[in-house]
Design brief:
Length: about 260
Amino acid sequence: MSLLCRVCGNALGHSIFSGRLCGDTADYFDCLVCGYVQTQPPTWLDRAYAHPINRSDTGVMVRNRANCRIVLATLALLGRRRERVLDCAGGYGILVRMLRDRGVDARWSDRYCENLLARGFEHDGHPAGLVTAFEAFEHFTDPVGEMSAMFAQAPNLLISTEIVPHPAPPLDQWWYYGVEHGQHIGFFRRQTLKVLADRFGKRLVTDGRSHHLFTQEAVSPTAWRTTRLISRLLPRLYSIGLKSKVWPDFQAASRLP
Ligand SMILES: [Zn+2]
């Protein structure tokens, strides 16, 4: 019986290639309807997540610095700088701490990773203006379910995941497959992201490469690109007028038992 696409439910047909992930053989499929490139249902994730932050993630700090900038730019564009941000799959809490340092009320959730830097700022169910999920969607076994849960928290969602080329490169010719750690099990194309946006009644704005915004606002791709460019040239601009939470957070933490 044919497997079904984990994004659109289409029957997947034949695999495009196979690989070895954490000792298991994994078939990869390319959905003809939505363009989602995906492994077979994974059986190796317990081994893949023995260390939640994989050892080969040398880009973790560079990425968090860039993401902090992009979140601030996006909040400015959406007119939501003073609203809460929920960082899903927040990892060690680096981004939440960086955003709070810049004055954004950021919170986190993560089912797998122990938070080291933003304990006390867990998501508490309070609605947010923006949900972020950086380098998370390629890990999800149920992207639609995860996205649904995120939109229950906020009307806007900013994610990062690398767009898979077309046709899908062989397994040894695209680093993002992550075969050395086995945690990446699904890869998106613009078309896949559009299917998801339509499903949730959102507008898709994407840089066509790594960062993708799902929003209810009338944000144009040009406006988003320009705002991100400005944030790169003037990295402090979009936190002007916000008050850093370094000191109030210290005070709050000091009162904790
Ligand atoms: Zn599909």
